[in-house]
Design brief:
about 180 residues, alpha+beta, Immunoglobulin-like, 2 domains, four-stranded antiparallel beta sheet, 2 helices, 8 strands
Length: about 180
Amino acid sequence: MYRLSWIALIITVIVYAIIIVMIIDYKVYADEERPPLIKSTDNKNYMVELSWEPVEITPNRIILFNVKIIPSSNNNNNSSSNNVIVYDFIVKSDDNIIKKVNGVRVIDKISTHTVEFPSAGRFNVIININEHDSVTFNVLVAPEFPSTVIVTVIVISLAIILSKLSLRINNLYSR
């Protein structure tokens, strides 16, 4: 009888430890930068603004990335207001390329790309402009927070606690 109580207690502690680790891990992902992200290219010829929707990036979900490229004042190619900017859009994790679009031509300085991330983790969004200038943004794909796991754990924990209470109550009245 007591052996079952100890096993139930150990299982409950392990489950709660797993939940705490998942919550801490989820909060680490939630503290990352939010869009829009703005950076200057390596050669300082352009400012690039990267934004995305939805703001929370999770695996296996279509994300719309908006790329806005603004020529800087010291850019020699800034002589005309209707310059065509050509860039490559690359999303990768380590050496694994998730998406690559070459030769994107923009006149109004804004374009949109759809990306579906296969897993959680850190990814690089690279914009190579006119074959000689680039900028890299780091984005974080957060794991989906499994709310069903929490509900299941709470229900199981309550069942274990109630069964322990009923055993103790039965033991008190049986004496």
